[in-house]
Write a structure and sequence with these properties.
The chain is α/β, with parallel strands linked by helices. It is 34% helix and 30% strand. The strands form 2 sheets. A 4-stranded mixed sheet has the order 1-2-3-4, covered by helices on one side. Strands 5-6-7-8 form a 4-stranded mixed sheet, covered by helices on one side.
């Protein structure tokens, strides 16, 4: 890791450099020892000491700033903020790679809000496909009376619109048209 230190209204001592390097060395192993560049800015205003840390890694930029009366505490707090951002990014990469759940399992495991899980909820099962033939509603009634199915989808030959004819519980037929 390459370090660059900037002091505003203060002198950067070797002890401050060592402490900042020690705090940021943890990130070197987390980021797989990839080339990094760290810029540490120390600002002193009256009794306040402010530390700002910017780390450049690949295409990512991590920043952390902290202010305290003690310089070491402000450096440690800024390093902790940067470390938190790094761990969040690494966790995002890991869940994207390893924690991926197939869509079928994810949809089956969802909760529909009524207390039923995906395994207990009714599923849509594609039974078969058939052609929508042009016919009249009377012809469709004759066909659905002979079939074990409860309905038939047809195209009305007079209006050229799709309709559904279904068997009712009272023995009659119901017609649904758009």
């Amino acid at each position: 890791m390459r370090f660059e230190f900037t002091g505003r209204h203060t002198e950067i001592t070797p002890a401050v450099e060592r402490f900042a390097k020690k705090e940021l060395q943890k990130l070197d192993r987390v980021l797989d020892s990839a080339p990094m560049h760290a810029h540490v800015t120390i600002t002193a205003e009256k009794y306040r000491k402010k530390a700002e840390i910017i780390i450049y890694w690949r295409d990512n930029v991590f920043t952390g700033a902290a202010e305290n009366s003690d310089l070491n505490q402000s450096i440690a707090a800024a390093a902790a903020k940067v470390e938190k951002q790094v761990y969040k990014l690494k966790e995002k990469f890991q869940t994207r790679k390893r924690g991926r759940v197939p869509v079928r399992e994810a949809s089956a495991a969802t909760d529909d809000g009524a207390g039923e899980t995906g395994a207990d909820a009714p599923r849509i099962i594609a039974a078969r496909r058939y052609r929508v033939k042009p016919m009249t509603a009377e012809e469709a009634a004759i066909i659905v009376a002979d079939l074990p199915d409860q309905f038939i989808v047809f195209r009305d030959s007079e209006t050229n619109k799709v309709g559904v004819l279904y068997k009712r519980k009272d023995g009659n037929f119901g017609l649904i048209e758009p």
